[in-house]
Amino acid sequence: MAEKFPDLFDKLTEKWFINTLGSPTAVQQQAWPAIASGRHTLVSAPTGTGKTLTAFLVFIDRLLEQARSGNLKQELQLIYISPLKSLAGDIRENLKRPLDGILEEQLKAGIPSKSTGISVGIRTGDTSQKERSRMSKTPPHILITTPESLYLMLTSKSGQKILETAKAIIIDELHALIDSKRGAHLMLSAARLDRLCRRPLQRIGLSATIEPLDIAARYLSPDPVAVIAPKMQKEIRIAVTSPLSDKRTVMKDPVWQELAKTVYSYCGGTGSAIAFVEGRAYAEKLAYFINQLGGEGFARTHHGSLSKEQRFEVENSLRSGALRLLCATSSMELGIDVGDIDQVFQIGCPRSISSTMQRLGRAGHNPNRISIMHMFPREAVEGLYCGLTAEVARNGGIEYSKPPRLCFDILAQHLVSMACGGGYEVEEVMELLSRAFPFRDVKVEDVREILCMLAGDYEHERDIPVRPRIIYDRLHNHVTGDAYSRMLAVSAGGTIPDKGLYTCRTESGVKLGELDEEFVFETRIGDRFLLGTFAWRIVNISKDSVIVTQTNTAGARLPFWHGEIKGRRLRTGIAFGELFRRLARADEAGSMLKELEKMGLDEPAAKSAADFLKRQLQSTGLLPDDRTILIDILWMKTATIR
Asked: Is there a single domain that holds both residue 506 and residue 483?
């Protein structure tokens, strides 16, 4: 494959890649020419096909060439946007491989460098003030950040000074952003970045599972986009296994203890595995019961209510192979490097087909390996839906993206932020909105009304005293800000809401994670609970934090958190409806059990699902020809299985 590199990369880069990784994947062969030409590029390919390196390698090669020639200025050239702070740190570590590897090839070749090397900086909510000040004085060549931190940098003069020299922006895990207001917030920041840099930055979007591609491309950039989505055959295996036995039991929590036994039995050998669950409390519960079988430390947890230090420790243990089982929520769906994972377990029915594919891709991460997932339903109806989900996933069906429109609340945040930087005209706002897909339908009248609201007109009409968020000159259509505007933009900007969570800390001040306020309300000093697979006793409860000390697990209860439940998408519902009709016809032919087994259900799970569906059909009293009415009702009920 060496002949594929000379026209695009330096010989040193080519040599490192071939010696380290071998032949490039199909997505790399197709994406590199588009990225090297400066075109906006959307890269859509399965997990494990090297998308992140695909996006970075062209820029790394150019930066190293500038360093060798002595032309590398200490200024920002590339911005990488990560939807997760933990993924941002992971990317910096992974960038060391090509940077250090190519420099090593350079030393072997006896080529001196006139520069000290390529600098990589991280700017997230966890970045200290000292690091931020250092970054302002010495900007990195590559900046890794999050949507919220990019917005805050655009709001401050020091941040704008760092960003104004950027040439390209990489947006990773685009599928995780495109359907949310967080994604809309980011795309408006990207439009503002174009204005700040006085030229459209090259945009590279990376996604594992996203459809339709034309919408995703238009979302990425209003300019023409090269879509790289090669057909890549990756073998997958999804099996639905019933963990429930027919034996009577007097156990306190029989379903989860049976699940723990089954999952533990599948963790044979020495490999690592990930068990995905549909809730943070479920992750703690599963890990607790599995550790009773495998010993303390056999299983750990990973979810959004654990502190970043706890999550980082768990990620490193999994990456190094020291951890046998990780019980995780969707926090591990995205592209965090998890090392060599043999298999993935799914407890209960996943929320979506896209989530199923993302989680499946965690196992057998490389293109030439088989991705294996075992799904364990907790009840008969859940087994049925697991089978439907597995069948749709095997056939490559994923939800269509539906980006939000207008998003006036997000626009209001940016209008305040922009006012802090010297002001703007209404016409300038309309130019920005034309380059941000979710805001393409916003009219100039809408912008003026939002500006009037921000200027305090709503309160003034009702004689309510209020300080204007912006200063709006209606005669000249000009907007400026003041110190209050800046304070609002920084303190209330971004899209992460305050969920009323209590910080959980040890007596020495170490942050362990966060607890739901309702759980704290029901808890008293001296109570014990589990968090991160460790037991803690509450020492003190203040207005916004819980102080704990480590204790034994005896009498410790599981915490709970309230989260948002997402319904099933229409396209998935239609696919489920087609499968339900297929099962109804199979029931008439007396072959429903065989049809369910074809969907990947083992015999016990298939029998339970078949019995459930037959009872539903028989209880209606409908004739066989009319049963499709019931089937339509069943799949239209998009309630989440709990």
From this structure: no
